[in-house]
Amino acid sequence: MRWWAEAAVACAYIGAVIGAGFASGQELAQFFLILGPRAIPALLLTTALFALGGFFLRSSACRLRTQSYRDLVDPLLGRAGGMADAILIAFLFGTLVIMLAGAGAVVQEYMGVQAWLGSAVAAALTLAAVAGRSRGVLVINGALVPVLVAYLFLLGLGNLQWSFPAPLPGRSPLLAANWVLNGFLYVAYNMVGVIVLFTSLPAHEGGKWGAFCGGLILGFTALVLVMALGGLEPAEAAGPIPVLSLVRRRAPSWEGFYVFNLWIAMATSAVTSAFGLAERLAQGGRLPAPWAGLIIVGLALPASGLGFARLVAYLYPFFGYVVLLLLVAGAIRQCFNKLGRQI
What we know:
α1 (2-17) crosses α13. The protein has 343 residues and is mainly α. The chain has helices at residues 2-17, 20-24, 26-31, 39-64, 70-77, 81-111, 115-131, 133-157, 179-200, 208-229, 234-237, 242-250, 255-282, 289-303, 311-342. The chain has 15 helices and no strands. The protein has one domain: Orthogonal Bundle (Hydantoin permease), CATH 1.10.4160.10. It is 78% helix and 0% strand.
């Protein structure tokens, strides 16, 4: 069943990236619509980085037989691994809180029930996946992600705009109208959750080609969506959920289905974040992963009422810069190590 393992890893990869920001179009608008026509080369670069980066990360995780992201980060960064570990933990916990809050907000705004109910259901789904260890994450993502990706891809494909409007005004002081930098920042920030996921899955499950294909699917889905969002009015594209504006304009009868898919995106991101954190706390046998997951989700659920007013505009680009700096530092360290061995 090798093909199933590859497909499952591809779905898990896509699920780690397609969260509320991607599925709502908010990330895509902030990183790419501000570029105008230069969004196309930026997204082609992003596609290549997702595919090659996913292949490299999963191959490295299998070769090193990692159990958590520390097993990959420490050899790469040396003494700086502890700092990277703290950054990853903070980012993952923040992402979990945000996704639970988003799940509650969607339920409250579009279904007319209390926000805590949507957050609680997402928290229960997250706990179920963590309790099942790696198999739980693969099953959850394998069941939910194909529906979401197919919907977003077809929505974008049916509304392609071949002429891009003028660049939208930037909403984040951390993002510039530089297509190369924005492409690298977007992939770098998204790779935080991917690193955690790929290093937590057992090495015997393989998945390097699944990661490569998952990266291609991610990139092309983003490209199609951005080309569709380019046809929105500037006020619509600059809104909190640009894809919802696209749905209301082009396919209003599908609005409820889209909201359901948006909730799925938040749930899969919550699953990925909680799974990686639980595996990290469980490493060394000090605390079973299910209990670690219970503690993590128990802390995140009440904090989810805080929301995330400007998170995408500030926190995501910030972590993109941090990850890029760590990767550059790791590459420099590896080069010096190789030169030292040769000398």
